[in-house]
Specification:
The protein is mainly alpha-helical. It folds into four domains: about 170 residues, Rossmann fold (3-Layer(aba) Sandwich); about 110 residues, Glutamyl-tRNA Synthetase, domain 3 (Alpha-Beta Complex), CATH 3.90.800.10; about 45 residues; about 100 residues, Arc Repressor Mutant, subunit A, CATH 1.10.10. About 45% of the residues lie in helices and about 10% in strands. The protein contains 21 helices and 13 strands. A three-stranded antiparallel β-sheet has the order 3-4-7. Helix 7 links the parallel strand 8 and strand 9. Helix 6 packs across helix 7 and helix 18 runs parallel beside helix 19. It is elongated. The protein binds glutamic acid. The site of glutamic acid has 8 residues, from helix 6.
């Protein structure tokens, strides 16, 4: 039975790198018939942001990545919020102290600074608390048992540090990167328990992965270096035989491939890098999300699945169910994945083609209300069907199709001036007059009458068609003009043709 977890820290809005990690964990759990667990890693009190946990939970729900166990669902290994498990970490840290795999350290910040200074003076560029200095420091290795107990009784703040033996190789069999080797001499005696009584990420993460019976860890590559300490912890606890497998995901890169996509890049490049919009008073942050940009959650999932993975076929459109079917961790890429916003828009446009109109209608009504657009006189469903192939985001509907909802057209003067001449104007006037007699006012009927008149006039299609379109929409691009005319109805269509007929006085 596989058990995979997504273990975010609620330190702010979750960026899409985090969501991709959640997605891959989810896909592998579902694919293998295992469980997907949400664990909130909130032991760093200094970085805790109220509302961030809720944001993470809402984002997963919006995307349909529903955990089997987690702070909301509960489960056999509850609680799933690390701040509620501090006693467990404390016990485990003490267990390591007892077995000699860890020790208690009382060094003050000043003493630690002095130690670093001493090492720097000796020419050591990255001074660290390790085998070379631990014998000179104030800890349970250098103090007597009585002294240690007295300090603890006197409430002298202390940390618990992992005792790292130098000179050992640590081999990690990463499923994406292959064999990664670390030398324990390079590692510091990592703090496991902090002076505030909270565990560090390393201790809590390993203890929980073990207790929650996690079989596979999939996380971002920034955690690869920490894995060396994690392996040492599994060894120290005697859990090495049930240690999970590790897969470290490649970075998501900026669109130009230059470095990691950061949380600030969304604002810089004008695209979303978070799943949902959020405002936090606590960190004075207001962000946009794929939701507020008008993306379909299924399209976001599809897009993210391909950021660092591919199915090995030409097929690109996959529902979440289909992704579960085809997902194969072996096909996760080693190299960074470049964020391509146009590709995100393309995925979304594909999903828009298949949306159920009932859902669309509800959202369009909401957009219309928000923007004070009156839709009561318009056959919105028919307009939607007409514009659907041109939409990248549902949100663009009232922008692209604005001419159905107002008579105040924004004319593209430059393009119109290029085409307009008095003969064309006269033809538009004639067209307007002829259309009054068409019954029913269908695209087909309009096109028959229009084509006849155009042919008789001798005016080139390349001149008159852009003008017909501009009469109705203001611009020279858009869907079929006869469909537009039919949806606008004869009164508006005629009015707009007549207006364009006298363009010089308009423009
Ligand atoms: N709490 C870590 C994070 O914020 C978890 C890393 C891991 O999955 O081990 O990403």
């Amino acid at each position: 039975m596989t058990r995979l977890r997504f273990a975010p820290s609620p330190t702010g809005a979750l960026h899409i790198g985090g969501i991709r990690t959640a997605l891959y964990n989810y896909l592998l759990a579902r694919k293998t018939g295992g469980q997907f667990i949400l664990r909130i890693e909130d032991t760093d009190q200094t970085r805790y942001v109220p509302g961030a946990e809720d944001y993470i939970i809402r984002s997963l729900a919006w995307l349909g990545l529903n955990p089997d166990e987690g702070p909301i669902q509960g489960g056999p290994f509850a609680p799933y919020r690390q701040s509620e498990r501090t006693a467990i970490y404390h016990d485990h840290a003490m267990q390591l102290v007892k077995s000699g795999k860890a020790y208690i350290a009382f060094d003050t910040p000043e003493e630690l600074d002095l130690m670093r200074q001493r090492l720097t003076d000796k020419g050591i560029s990255t001074p660290k608390y390790d085998a070379s200095v631990r014998d000179e420091m104030v800890n349970s290795l250098t103090l007597s048992e009585d002294e240690v107990n007295r300090k603890i009784a006197d409430k002298v703040p202390y940390t618990v540090r992992l005792l790292v033996e130098p000179g050992h190789g640590i081999i990690i069999h990463d499923k994406i990167r292959g064999e990664v080797i670390f030398d324990s001499t390079e590692l510091d005696d990592k703090i496991l328990l902090k002076a505030d009584g909270f565990p560090t990420y390393h201790l809590a993460n390993v203890v929980d992965d073990h207790l929650m019976q996690i079989t596979d860890v999939i996380r971002g590559e920034e955690w690869l270096p920490s894995t060396a300490h994690h392996v040492l912890l599994y060894r120290a606890f005697g859990w090495i035989d049930t240690m999970p497998t590790f897969s470290h995901l490649p970075l998501i890169l900026k669109p130009n491939g230059q470095g990691k996509l950061s949380k600030r890049d969304g604002q810089k490049f004008g695209f979303p890098v978070f799943p949902m919009a959020w405002h936090s008073d606590h960190i004075e942050e207001s962000i946009e999300g794929f939701d507020s940009y008008g993306f379909e959650p299924a399209a976001v999932i599809n897009f993210l699945a391909f950021l660092g993975w591919n199915p090995g076929t030409e097929q690109e459109i996959f529902s979440l169910e289909q992704l579960i079917d085809v997902f194969d961790a072996e096909r996760i890429h080693k190299g960074g994945a470049r964020f391509d916003y146009d590709k995100a828009l393309w995925f979304n446009s594909q999903y828009l083609q298949h949306l159920d109109y009932a859902i669309v209608q509800e959202r369009l009504i909401q957009y219309a209300n928000n923007e004070n657009i009156s839709i009561s006189d318009v056959n919105v469903e028919a307009v939607f069907k007409l514009l659907q192939p041109r939409l990248h985001r549902l949100k663009e509907f009232f922008m692209i199709g604005y001419y159905f909802f107002t008579d105040e057209l924004k004319y593209d003067d430059t393009e119109i001036n290029k085409k307009w001449n008095p003969e064309a104007g006269a033809l538009l006037q004639k067209l307007g007059e002829a259309l009054g007699n068409i019954e029913p006012f269908t695209a087909e009927n309009i096109s028959i009458v229009a084509k006849e008149l155009i042919t008789a006039s001798g005016i080139k299609m390349g001149v008159i068609m852009p003008l017909i379109r501009a009469s109705l929409t203001g611009t020279i691009q858009g869907p079929d003009v006869y469909e537009i005319a039919s949806l606008l109805g004869s009164v508006k269509t005629i009015e707009r043709f007549v207006k364009m007929a006298g363009w010089t006085s308009v423009g």
